[in-house]
Amino acid sequence: MAGATARRWVAVLRSPLGILAVVLLTVLLGLTVLAYPLWHARAHTVVPAEILQGPSARHPAGTDLLGRDILARVLVATRLSVGLALAATGIGVAIGLLFGAATALSGKRFGRWIGTLVNIAVAFPNLLLALFFAVIFGVGAKGAVLAIGFATAPGFARLTQTLAAAVSGRDFIAAARIAGVGRVRILFRHVLPNIAEPLVVTATSAAGGALLAFAGLSFLGLGVQAPSYDWGRLLGEGLTQIYIHPAGALAAGLAVVVAALAFNLAGEVAARALSSHDARHGLRRSPASELAPVVPMGEPTVLAVENLSVSFPADEGFVTPVRGVSMTLRRGESVGIVGESGSGKSLTALAIARLVESPGLVRADRLDFLGTDLRAADSRSVRGLLGTSLAMVFQDPMTSLNPIQRIGRQLAEVAERHQRMNRRRAWDRAVERLDAVRIPAAARRARQLPHELSGGMRQRAMIGMGIMAQPSLIIADEPTTALDVTVQRQVLELLAEVRGGNQAALLFISHDITVVAEVCVRVLVMYAGHIVEDLPSAALLHDARHPYTRALAAAVPTMETDRDQPLAVIPGRPADPRRPAAGCPFAPRCPLATEQCHEQNPPLAAYGTAHRVACWHADLAPAVAPVTVSEGDLR
Fold first, then answer.
1. Cα–Cα distance for residue pair 90/97, rounded to 1 Å
2. Are 320 and 577 in contact (CB under 8 A)?
3. Using CA atoms, how far apart are residues 2 and 10, in angstroms rounded to an integer?
4. How far is the C-alpha of 69 from the C-alpha of 55, rounded, in Å?
5. Minimal CA–CA distance to 321: which of 579, 570, 525?
6. Which three-class secondary structure state does DSSP give residue 390?
7. 48-52, 335-339, 422-426, 555-559: which has the highest mean pLDDT?
8. Which residue of 50, 83, 420, 482 shows the fewest CB atoms closer than 10 Å?
9. Peptide bond preceding 359 in cis form (omega within 30 of 0)
10. Are 222 and 131 in contact (CB under 8 A)?
11. CATH topology of domain 2-274
12. What is the full DSSP assignment across 480-535?
């Protein structure tokens, strides 16, 4: 990886743009260091006999009102001009990062106020803000540095907010929160490193803007004061004699333009080099019967959920996409959740893992994990429990893993934080876990970045992260959706193997009811935020009693499906959580719906042995015929 990065930089630096940027930046920094000792005496020597002379071999840019060499003064001013511009840029970047990260550090309510202030400040041009702050901080170099720094900060803060918001929604941030990582550590370890590249590029370009702004303030008399001088002050002095001695202003103006160009070209080169990233097994087979072992009813309870609801504020009040969900998982048990997109499956899992942030509101009559009430305040003990005993496998491992951290480092963080291992022991543990999930050459793979692994390997690495400790509950949210069928089978077998080894409970979420029927012993069917059926997986495809469950099963093609006939579909549209129906939420789409269904929502009631269903006509469900699309509709 280091070699690939070096090659990218070499390729960019060898381009015409890269060569020009390197030459200009080298000359600029060389003059910053060497110009003062080399030309200081010449720049300050007053020669009355040579006042206001034009360009000559002795004075290439002429002399000023005191007979001093203008070119020497321009060269000597490089140190002060560049130094003050970099100082102002540093202040602007520091303040911008602080305000830009305020949302992540302080919560959304205070963050919104900060965001509003930043948006107001961004609406004003930088130079106008600089003039405003220059009046506040006073005339002089110190006041100008602060003024330009404060004027640069809003744009940098806005960029930081935007980039951080995009990264904060990624699954690897959620995984870090499950592991109990605090806000400050998440910000500096996971968020800022992932947005560092555009921030570095912007900061480099901002230095050129700060140089121009500083020259402008000094030109107006608000910046560097006599006897000190920078390019802006020299430009102002030269403009007083521009009609009789234009070379005096030209030298200082040319220095400002060239220096700003050097910084901007350096930013462009960095942008090209940093934006050219390239994005790029054996498993032991287990019998199908091992994928869903039967769990004795006497096993201890791992998760107990009663009447769980999740709400979000909206214009018309609160919208509740998950309502009244109850479930129990015992040690070693595998429970699946199926349903259409938007039925509340993933949101239920996020609520259990305490990943629903404000303004989302999670309520439950009971939410116990290993005997601990998860409704309690966000205490260190609860974070530690979730970090060591709850493993979450997300749908897309590319967004679940931090793209700029090596795989082994991400796994080792769990052991360092919760098992108090030193870095070396944690790394060894990470390699051991990668080997346990059947990643070949685990020691080498641990040193690679996520994009260097295949999709199947990344998913196995996510499972390896989950078993760094000894999880009692594994929540797998669509873990095989983005994988081909061969790798999908391997991941399912791996989950079964891990669960069997730790006797962990598994909550498996998927759209594919055939996969759920194979992996799980019990299935929860969700519709419109409700659990409408709870049944053994053996009955899912052949003895479901809710019309919605039977419609889901009918919509899955099998080897016996008549290819000459249109595929079965569920008519109508999914329920809108903003407008919950008074009766059964599936009634508008149900072929068995009666007046009672439209007026009364059926409870989730027992139906036979180990079977519950929320339907007034459960006995009639087997008579429901699959709905098909007509040939006219297909046209």
1. 11
2. yes
3. 12
4. 10
5. 579
6. strand
7. 335-339
8. 420
9. yes
10. yes
11. MetI-like fold (1.10.3720)
12. TTTS-HHHHHHHHHHHHHHHHHHT-EEEEE-S-HHHHHHH-SEEEEEETTEEEEEE
Domain boundaries, the chain: 2-274, 538-635
Looking only at the bridges linking them, the beta strands covering 473-477 and 505-509 are: parallel
Distance CA 465, CA 416 (A): 13
Answer for the pair 319, 311: CB distance below 8 angstroms, yes or no: yes
User: Which pLDDT band holds residue 109 (cuts at 50, 70, 90)?
Assistant: low
From the number of C-beta atoms within 10 Å of its C-beta (0-12, 13-18, 19+), residue 428 rates as middle
Lookup result for tokens 């052949």: 542
- Rounded to 5 degrees, φ, ψ at 428 are -60, -40
In this structure, the strands spanning 522-527 and 334-338 are: parallel
pLDDT band at 309 (very low <50, low <70, confident <90, very high): very high
pLDDT of 171 = 66
Q: Is residue 198 helix, strand or coil? A: helix
pLDDT tens for each residue of 189-226: 778 887 877 888 888 888 888 888 888 888 888 888 88
* Distance from C-alpha of 49 to C-alpha of 32, rounded to nearest angstrom: 30
Peptide bond into 440 cis (omega under 30): no
Q: Cβ–Cβ contacts within 10 Å for residue 51, how many? A: 13
DSSP string across 86-119: HHHHHHHHHHHHHHHTHHHHH-HHHHHHHHHHHH
Per residue in 461-496, pLDDT tens? 887 887 777 788 989 888 877 677 777 787 788 788
And the tokens for 185? 């550590």
Tell me, what amino acid is at 393? V
